[in-house]
Design a protein that fits this description.
Blueprint: H1 2-17, E1 21-26, E2 36-57, H2 65-68, H3 79-83, E3 86-91, E4 96-114, E5 120-124, H4 160-163, H5 184-194, H6 199-207, H7 211-216, H8 221-234, H9 236-246, H10 255-275, E6 277-289, E7 298-303, E8 308-310, H11 331-336, E9 339-346, E10 366-381, E11 386-404, E12 411-418, E13 425-433, H12 438-487
Parallel strand pairs: 5-12
Antiparallel strand pairs: 1-4, 2-3, 2-4, 2-6, 7-8, 7-9, 9-10, 10-11, 12-13
Length: 497
């Protein structure tokens, strides 16, 4: 009985000594992959932006645009722009942010399974094709600036300012009623002499201009005369036709169809004569930023009048390429061009974030690693404008935490799901089975009882075999003696009973 108990205790010792472990070690890139490899991610910030290339062409009479198209602004104000095309580049104020993860070469781990004995261990993990452990995905797009740029609607000949009584266009008037300037006499006389039916409206538009701006008008009587006559010949008939339709005096049966065509032609004539034209091509692209840092402006784009260049970032392979019409700056031009900066800062404050409140356990065997990322706010801006803002999580600005490798239990299971962009835990399950649970005790009790029964059975069988063997030998001996006696005519004295 003592031996049976000793055997039971030895068996129990073997089961408990074989503690289930899931050991995960950090490895350099040259270590053989003797196990399962996974990596924590670095967060890449993707900035979606729109850069405009605008080609401007000036108008012949742009200097007097305030008289003939008072509700609009000319494309070019200076004479140089009026005489030749001018190309400019600008960034729209609608940048957005998103994040994704890529393997961090400084945080590659090898999953090892260790421990001996009878163990019960399960794990469930999923890896993507890049080697990132993931069970769930996440993207941050926070658009806090969504500026709608409205285009100019070119209106002319409505007489809105004249209707407000800005000027009493009586014959022979030589100056505006209020704040007369030195240009009033010759400008008003030219508009009266050459403006025809539109003369009163044009004079009203002129007098509605601020006195200081009227003083700045060039004193070129020939240019103003030609500008006025061009208006009378090419714009006034269209404005009169539009007024006729709006007042229901037009004989046309399709005013709804004709009116938009007249509006379009008025816009075209005003652009050609006074406002100029502007053609814009947009690069609706994206840049990826990997070298993220807090409280340190990072120049990710440079935009100058002559072109653009991408610095501190890169265009993703799947993104839209910069159009060939866009001029790319040289290295020297890029350094001197105004920069568009990505600014990150902790939000909320660093001391209020979770990753600063805990440290990792570095002693002994450790298991799976995950990240507690940092939350940051981002702004894309230059020295004058804000082009986009948002907030998101960045893995490499946080900290790495490890799970225990064992729980000193018979069974151990981890079921993990990671956020792909940051390596943070999305879901977590831990399953352990105690070394002396009821099932184990019952199993060991059954094993012990079976061993005792087996030994008793062996002893019983040994006794019966001995008795039967002796009886067999006695019977055979008696049979042999009786046979010999009968052979010689003697009486058998040892017959079997």
């Amino acid at each position: 009985m003592f031996r049976a108990q000793r055997c039971l205790f030895l068996t129990l010792g073997v089961l408990l000594a074989g503690c289930a472990k899931v050991v995960v070690v950090k490895v350099p890139t040259t270590t053989p992959a003797d196990g399962i490899i996974y990596a924590l991610p670095n967060t890449v910030v993707r900035v979606q932006l729109k850069v405009d290339r605008t080609e401007k062409s000036g108008a012949r009479y742009a200097a007097y645009a305030a008289i003939f198209a008072p509700e609009s602004k000319p494309v070019c104000k200076d004479q140089k722009c009026t005489e030749e095309k001018k190309v400019t580049y600008s960034l729209q104020q609608n940048a957005t942010f998103a994040t994704y993860g890529e393997p961090d070469p400084e945080n590659v781990f090898l999953v090892k399974f260790s421990g001996r004995g009878a163990i019960d261990q399960t794990m469930s993990m999923t890896w993507n094709e890049a080697g990132l452990a993931t069970g769930a995905g996440s993207s941050v797009t926070n658009r806090t600036t969504d500026v709608v740029m409205s285009s100019l609607k070119l209106l002319a000949g409505l007489g809105t300012k004249a209707a407000l009584g800005a000027f009493d266009a009586t014959a022979g008037a030589e100056k505006c009623s209020d704040d007369s300037s030195t240009n009033d006499r010759w400008v008003i006389r030219s508009l009266q002499d050459n403006g025809g039916q539109s003369g009163a409206v044009l004079i009203a538009n002129y007098c509605a201009i601020d006195k200081n701006e009227r003083e700045k008008l060039p004193h070129d009587e020939t240019l103003l005369k030609n500008a006025t006559r061009s208006y009378v010949d090419r714009v006034q008939p269209l404005a009169a036709g539009r007024a006729s339709i709006l007042s229901a005096a037009s004989p046309t049966m399709e005013p709804a169809t004709l009116l938009p065509r007249i509006e379009t032609e008025i816009d075209h004539q005003l652009s050609a004569l006074y406002l100029g034209t502007k053609k814009t091509q947009t690069w609706d692209g994206a840049i990826d930023v990997r070298a993220v840092a807090v409280d340190t402006p990072l120049a990710v784009l440079h935009i100058a009048e002559k072109g653009i260049c991408v610095t501190g970032s890169e265009i993703p392979a799947e993104g839209k390429a910069i159009p060939p019409e866009f001029a790319l700056l040289s290295d020297e031009e890029c350094r001197n061009a105004p920069a568009i900066n990505l600014n990150l800062r902790y939000h909320p404050d660093r001391n209020q974030q979770l990753f600063t409140k805990i440290t990792d356990v570095t002693s002994g065997d450790r298991s799976f690693r995950y990240r507690i990322p940092a939350q940051v706010s981002a702004k894309l801006s230059n020295s004058e404008k804000l082009f986009g803002a948002g907030s998101f999580w960045v893995a490499q600005l946080g900290t790495v935490i490890s799970l225990p490798a064992d729980r000193h239990s018979k069974g151990l299971s981890y079921d993990l799901a990671f956020v792909e962009a940051t390596g943070g835990l999305k879901t977590f399950k831990l399953g352990t089975t105690g070394g002396l649970d009821s099932g184990t005790v019952d199993a060991l009790s059954n094993i012990g009882g079976t061993l005792v029964d087996y030994r008793n059975s062996i002893r019983k069988n040994e006794n019966e075999l001995s008795v039967l063997t002796r009886e067999d030998q006695l019977l055979k001996l008696r049979d042999d003696i009786c046979t010999i006696q009968k052979k010689y005519g003697l009486k058998c004295t040892v017959e079997p009973e």
